Amino acid sequence: MNERQKRCLWVGIAVFVLMGLFPPWDKGLEEGVHFEQSTRQGYTFLLTKGGLPIAMDMLAIQWAIVAVVTGGLIFTFRGKETQKTEIRSKECHQPGEGEPHTQ
Length: 103
Known about the structure:
Blueprint: H1 3-21, E1 24-28, E2 39-43, H2 56-76, H3 80-91
Antiparallel strand pairs: 1-2
């Protein structure tokens, strides 16, 4: 795994954790109102006292999107660094047997 892939992985993990700490919630606007008809949505800190009901379906969709995007970026950046390393090694001049070795 090259540096870009590692960076994408760590950013994806950080976003995943932040989404878990600040999950989406659903709350009806009035008592007795059915959730599908009238809801307020937002984000709250997970450990808040008197927490609101977490919208697990929305959280699962968000996590799935982060996983797909992170995986796509890791797949996209595969082999990029190795190609640069190969080009650099070809461009680098190695002294021959009779040439002086300088640093």
